[in-house]
Amino acid sequence: MSHITPGRPPAVVRGGRISGGDVALQKKLNAEAPKIPHLFRRIAELFTPHRGALMLTVVLVLVGAALSVAPPLLTQRTFDDGLFPPGGHPDIARLAELVGLMIAVYIVSVLLGVWQTYLTSTVGNSVMGALRVRLFSHLQSMELSFFTRTKTGVIQSRLQNDVGGVASVLSNTVSGVVGNIVTVMAAFVAMLALNAQLTLIAVVLMPFLVIAQRRVGQVRARIATKTQESLSDMTAITQESLSVSGILLSKSFNRQPDEIEKYSAENRNLVKLQVRQAMSGQYFFALVSIFLSSIPAIVYLVSGWLLSGGVHGITAGTIVAFTTVQARLLFPLMAIMRVALDLQTSGALFARIFEYLDLRPAIADAPGAVPLPAASPRLGEIEFDGVTFRYPDARGEDRATLEDVSFRVEPGQYAAFVGPSGAGKTTVSYLIPRFYEASAGAVRFAGRDVRELERESLVGHIGIVSQETYLFHATIAENLRYAKAGATQDELEAAARAANIHETIMSFPDGYDTVVGERGYRLSGGEKQRIAIARVLLKDPEVLVLDEATSSLDTISERVVQKALDTAAHGRTTIAIAHRLSTVVGADVIYVVDHGRIVEHGTHAELLAAGGAYARLYLEQAGASPNGSRGGSAGAAARAEA
């Protein structure tokens, strides 16, 4: 089975996954529809929950199809029995009876069509909605590395463009295929009943049309895949360029014209593909239309030739009825061919959808995984035992991000990890909640290997405050309640006070109902961080992970946020990933990470006295500031004195 994961352009395929940096190869692979075994069976299974509605739809279709051939037969009787009976004078009573019956058939057919449309629309849109939710739910279960190597716009394209692209097929396939096939078969039988010789003339070229239709369908499927790839690229460009960060970047460098040109170029490519997709098959359908539309004229010619040759049984009513039935073949037959083309075209889109659904999360609960006991005395204890880690897309010759790392943090202890950029500090914070899986060794939480624990239970005991605070485009209250959906207003305010942000929130005209804007851009960096801290406090975890939580703040904001962090860390196991050593001088233990290894550890005073890597880093940072240390917090100073 193909598992092509778009995102970071691939150059090498390992274990069914792509890594590397070849953009051209990525586009080529994405342009080829993945091969999904039993694709059409899996598409059919999507309709299983709607069996009852489908069966009723099929019944309505069959009845409607049967009724569709009644008018031509009634037309024959109208001509031969009502208008031109053997006696020569119209039979008004018989004519009125036949006309009334024809009108009744039309009324019933229309009502059945309305009911059928409602059922097919309901089923189709329900299936499409369920497919979209299923895909979204599956993506939620994917590991973090999937999202770090995949553009958000590409994921959005699968959810919106690909699922939306199969909407008409999901809504119309059953009624279109069943109804039109029955209509064609019924019309064919009626034509045979009217005159076998004329029927032969009408269907002689049908096999050639079927062969041509298959070839056209293959071309359209390829174009459809390329069109969806272009839509995916446009969605990614839109998502990146029109986000707040993207707009700020383009305005800062005056690159708006380049962004417009990039979007325009992809748009031109999409327009060309859409035109090709729209035009593919048009000549084929024009040929079919000409052929089917010309048949009545040919029937008139052949009828005249047969009558002049002395053939009996061909009446005016027979000719009119036959051409009427044949005309009713035109739209159903073309509709069947169009549905067949749509199925071939949408097969590529379904393949792209199932390709994502078939991706298996690299990190999932193991069979027999257990929840963490709520009252374990070791809750909050964290241990790394000989942990080595490589990122999934790392090349074989690359060194490991972490190599043979071992440490133990006791419940309630404040542990800091410091070191130069790229040393592997943040990776430590990713392995604790099992966002990534250790390549070797073991990560233990409360004395249990994290691979033996239910991830939901594990993450439920961990709170994370990162450098890049993410707030939803919603109110402050809604952002806080993301940690605890049923939190009361009093709980929100208590968490905000502990995070030193309540007074700031109340200074806003709308208070806790203030909308923060996309990614919280209406707030300052310090305000966003303190709201993020309040959100974690509302969760009330046993373990707090602080990943460079103050590194992007100015000195004043850093002190305010650091005070809130000290409050949040009180009584909890705290893992602080820090670049500024002044923020962790009061930690119970400081681990110095360099090139993926822990090179030394101890308290601030012990490490300074040792004169090693920590002392050098501390002196470098102190020398960069006129006042030496950048202050730290009251809590940190108290720890340092102790």
UniProtKB/TrEMBL annotation:
Matching CDD domains: ABC_6TM_exporter_like
SMART domains found in the cross-reference section: AAA
Example of a GO MF term: ATP binding
InterPro entries for the chain: AAA+_ATPase, ABC1_TM_dom, ABC1_TM_sf, ABC_transporter-like_ATP-bd, ABC_transporter-like_CS, P-loop_NTPase, Type_1_exporter
Key words, A-Z: ATP-binding, Membrane, Nucleotide-binding, Transmembrane, Transmembrane helix
Membrane topology category: Multi-pass membrane protein
Location of this chain's protein in the cell: Cell membrane
Residue spans crossing the bilayer: 53-74, 95-118, 181-212, 283-307, 313-331
Pfam family, one: ABC_membrane
SUPFAM superfamilies: ABC transporter transmembrane region, P-loop containing nucleoside triphosphate hydrolases
Domain ABC transmembrane type-1: 56-345
Name of protein: ABC transporter ATP-binding protein
Protein's organism: Sinomonas terricola
